Amino acid sequence: MPLLNEKTVSDILLAQHQHQQLQNQIPDQSDLDATHSMLTKPTGAVDVEKNGSKFAMEMPKSLADRLADKIPAFGLIMALISVVCFSIGSVIVKVLTQMHSIQVLVIRCVIQFVFYTITALIYRYPLMAPKGHRVDLALRCVSGTISLITIFIAYRLMPLADASTIHFASPVFVTVFAYFILK
Question: Transmembrane stretches, by residue range (predicted)?
């Protein structure tokens, strides 16, 4: 899987835009002390008002962020584990000749759905996208599904090395499309 699979280019640009907005509206220390107790609640971002303007304060760091602070090269380790697991999954798709690629994909998606739903419920993440991003998320789901279907079928029909090489060339296409679509 490409490393950008977990966080799309649009998510990165949105996070950068939000970061710039927060940098323009940084509160002073007294405001941070006053909102410290609100920030420890697991309910999402907290709106803070200063000088008549509202801005969102970030929640405490997630488990992944805390581990990244404690373990050097945590992101690199996670990327390597991802590559190893995806490669094993690709080999399994190639070896399971008695099942169709779509069946393997459906089983994978059901298992992922169960684990992600449990995680979202435990950490109280919202199950629906924000109102302004539902169409974006739906398009992301459709394109991701088409991508997985086509790569699983390619693993079946082509040599594994060739299909993987073409699949891992996706960052090049993401860069080109991002340049023209996202400016």
Answer: 71-93, 105-125, 137-158, 164-182
The Cα 105–Cα 20 span in angstroms is 39
**Number of folded domains that form the chain:** 2
The pLDDT of residue 158 is 93
pTM, whole model, 2 decimals? 0.57
Asked whether residue 78 is domain-assigned, the answer is yes
Strands 46-50 and 53-57: what pairing? antiparallel
User: Residue 140's pLDDT band (boundaries 50, 70, 90)?
Assistant: very high
Nearest CA to 25 out of 58, 72, 59, 74 is that of: 58
d(CA 146, CA 47) in angstroms, rounded, equals 38
**SS3 track for 90-121:** HHHHHHCCCCCHHHHHHHHHHHHHHHHHHHHH
pLDDT tens digits, 23-79: 666 555 545 444 444 444 444 454 555 555 555 555 567 777 888 888 888 889 999
Contact 167, 159 (CB under 8 A): no
**Same structural domain for residues 110 and 154?**
yes
Query: How wide is the angle at C-alpha 108 spanned by C-alphas 91 and 119, nearest 5°?
Result: 125
Could you say which of 53, 81, 99 is where a domain stops?
Answer: 99
CB atoms within 10 A of CB 93: 22
Q: Which residue has the tokens 């029909």?
A: 157
